[in-house]
Amino acid sequence: METSRTGVLHPYWPRDLSIPSYVANDRSMSEILAFLFSVSGVFLLVTWVLTGQEGSTGRLGFWRRLAVCWFAVCGFIHGVIEGWFSLYYNIIPADQSFLSQLWKEYSKGDSRYIIADNFTVCMETVTAWLWGPFSFWAVFAFLTNKSYRFVLQLIISLGQLYGVVLYFYTEHRDGYAHSEFGHPIYFWFYFVFMNVLWVIIPLVLIVDAWRQLSAAQTHRDTTKTQKSKRK
């Protein structure tokens, strides 16, 4: 931890970043990560159990159940974790609430969060208040076999992919100045790994939704053609 140009000690990059209100966490990294992964695990486990129930059209398949679990975890992360940031970004540096400390820990991998960078605030606000509720809606839609479930999957996944591409690209244009480039935890785990999941999984779900919706449209077109021939 080094001193910024304002004389305040902080662990963020660039090293001369001015964060006059910063107060160091009193929670350890292991406590914060244990909370994040344990709560995410609870959401995953509960959703896995729910998706294993016999529905009106039978049980969901293995991969479909995993997809629904993904949306449940996304609902928690977007709605609660990122929702907290969207509401309290201006007080996070000085605040010692658990979720504020979580964001101060994550900011070691991307200091745009600790300084409330305009892009980050706007992107996270959209993510929290759109993709959070929409993710829980998608869980409900798959559990109840709603006809629009793959439309929701496509919309959410496109929104997530668009957001994370901008997230990575804006930092790339800044020369990765907001983290210790190459650090195994702060750069590779926090910044890269914890975000690249929202590139890979949404891409897979976009292709899946495309195939499901195309098949449904093909079936409708075929049925319509057959009906018109009978007249």
Q: Brief overview, please?
A:
The protein has 231 residues and is mostly helical. It contains six helices and two strands.
Q: How many distinct helices?
A: 6
Low-confidence stretches: none
The class by helix and strand makeup works out as mainly alpha
Most strands sheet: 2 strands, antiparallel
The level of helicity is: 55-70%
Termini gap:
79 Å
- Please state how the strands of the largest beta sheet are arranged side by side: 1-2
Number of strands: 2
Order of secondary-structure elements = EEHHHHHH
Mean pLDDT across every amino acid position:
91
Shape: elongated
Q: Kindly provide the radius of gyration, computed on alpha-carbon positions and rounded to a whole number of angstroms.
A: 21 Å
Structural write-up:
The chain has helices at residues 29-51, 62-88, 98-106, 118-143, 149-173, 186-230; strands at residues 2-3, 9-10. With 231 residues, the protein is mainly alpha-helical. Strands 1-2 form a two-stranded antiparallel ribbon. Strand 1 and strand 2 (9-10) form a beta hairpin. Helix 2 runs antiparallel to helix 4 (118-143) and helix 4 (118-143) packs antiparallel against helix 5. The longest helix has 45 residues, at 186-230.
Task: Describe this protein with a few key phrases.
elongated, two-stranded antiparallel sheet, single chain, 6 helices, 231 residues, mainly alpha, 67% helix
Topology:
Blueprint lengths: L1 E2 L5 E2 L18 H23 L10 H27 L9 H9 L11 H26 L5 H25 L12 H45 L1
Antiparallel strand pairs: 1-2
Helix pairs in contact: 1-2, 2-4, 4-5, 5-6
